[in-house]
# Entry
Amino acid sequence: MNYALVAEQFFNGFQLGIILFLMAAGLTLIFGIMDLVNLAHGTLYMFGAFFAATVADLTGSFTWAILLAIPMAMVAGIILEVLVLRTLYVRNHLDQVLATFGLIIFFNELFLVVFGAGGLAIRLPPELQGTTGLGGGVTVPIYRLFIIAMGLVVAIGLYFLVVKTRIGMLIRAGASNREMVGALGIDIKLLYTAVFGLGAALAGFAGMIVAPITQAQSGMGEDVLILAFVVIVIGGIGSIRGAFLASIIVGVIDTMGRSFIDVALLAVMPANAADTAGPAISSMLIYLLMAAILAFKPQGLFPPRGI
Amino acid sequence: MFKKLALLMPVLLIAAGPVEAKEIKIGYVTTLTTPASLLGKQMKLAVEIALDHMNHKMGPLDVKVLFEDDAVNPKQGKQKTEKLLKKDKVDLMAGYIWSHVLGASAPMVLKAGKFFITSNAGHSLYAGKKCHKNFFSAAWENSQTPMAMGELLNRKGVKSLYVMTANYAAGKQMLAGVEATFKGKIIGKDLTPWPSHSDWSAELSKAKAAKPDGIFIFYPGAATAKYLTQYRQAGLDKTIPLYHVFSIDGSNLPLLQKAGLTNVLGTQQTQFWSPDLDNAQNKRFVAEFRKRSGGVYPAFYAAQAYDTMFLIKSGVEGVNGNLKDMDGMRAAMEKADFPSVRGKFRYGKNHFPIQNFYAREVVTDKDGNWTVANRGIVLKDHETPFAKDCKL
# Structure
């Protein structure tokens, strides 16, 4: 067994988990507090990537790209909430799914027309290029290390926001019992807009820090959206702590599966059968995990307290 | 004035009432949405240039091409094919980038008794067991280009190879192709989900640990830019040479250049054609394409789409516009008697080209644009090994 490779894959999985967390945190809040199934959450991720790529193109600075694109994504999210999503709160989940799916198609095609099929690339500053050693023969791309650091900073910030502030208290209260929060005289409309804006900023941030790896491209949000839904089901809907732990679990299991399943299968079946089964099983792995958790703990691993 | 008259022409024709079929209607399915429209739009432009170059005439018939979008989705490709066949009543079907879309669509066209001409997708089954008298390829069979790659790797002295390909019909056939000719050892392979996969961190770590002499990839279109970005971020550009088929060409090189992915320069690939091939038809095509695309070089997708139109033209001329004479049209097309951008070639009994495959290298042209340059023949007059399974 190559321990350096195992460590490196764990690192890769952890980094994927961080991106998933940024997506899932907003998704779980919006679903848990507002009871809104927002398929267009991936669209906000795409917004972030394209805003950052555009600003980077104009200013030539990656730092400015991130600093300016976060509020831009937040504002875009709030505009979307006020114009479209607000009318959906009273509708049933199927209507919400249809309407937000419509938003996905609309924005994907819009971005295709505006930015072209090739999408936009973000060039990294030289300090973030290349690789660095972590000891023990493990070398990792510096930028992925940067993603993990940024993601952890955001996770800690989010923890303080939710646990230590008044708005955080309202958010937690909303996740536990929506009607009661409204009955106590809290302006639920404003709270919803704030939560949606926060979710949009988180998704946008995920999109912009991933863009230097995968580029900004129309439709980029949908693949990660599916994983984010898996994460919030596993973590427990409405729970930020659950979203964080489930993100890391999903990221690591997915990456480990892609790395070692084919080797493991070779031990139990002939080579050409393993070649076919390997990719199939590794892409199913996290869905199997989700199915198992739904069967044994339908509330998810870490449901928000008070439900 | 002249343009206005031309615009009026269809109106005048309608006003004149129904006349005998003086027109051939061609249904053309390609990808015009999603990031893969990068490829489909090249094909559409090439078809339009071909039509202009033949003055919109095939023999005595006017030509009308109806484009539809498959969105890289077999189900949608099939629906659009059905629409073109039944609603628009096209005379024949052409186009198709993706092997899985072809697999879903071709049976319906062949069952309807129409010609099916693939402009790209080179599904191995249709070159062998499922070959059909009305099925023609203006491109290649999937395994041929990677077979040429295997041979090129042998010549370069590569002993160990790591393969990464997209996990769909064509991706598996690419892997089979390189396995058929490569004499060294394939020490690792990853088939990644297609087209949803966008992060190769796990696969690149595995490849790095395996320490191969080379990495071989098949990732068409816009995916390549992501791959190359991550290849460089993982530091592999300095340690392991990259080889590729159908992944880097005129359709995405401008993007790679804009993203500053200099690690692509000097890497090698194999292909049946090159924009710098020295023949009159190719020069005319490449010059016109670059004029109309703002300097962008045509990719092989465009070259094949252009050839597709001239192949159909040769068939229509062979029967002097009598489209009911399918046997006559088939016989004319089997001769491959038209000016091809790849130069002279002939058809095998399975209606797939028997043709040369070249090594190509990614270079900078004299104006500073990135392109590919021909580095000589790797396989001469090559026929797909699947031809032996064809019972035609």
Observations:
- Chain A has a mean pLDDT of 91.
- The interface with chain B takes residues 2, 4-5, 8-9, 12-13, 15-16, 109, 112, 117-119, 121, 123, 129-131, 139, 141, 143-144, 212-215, 217-220, 222-223, 255, 258-259, 275, 278-279, 283 of chain A (CB under 8 Å).
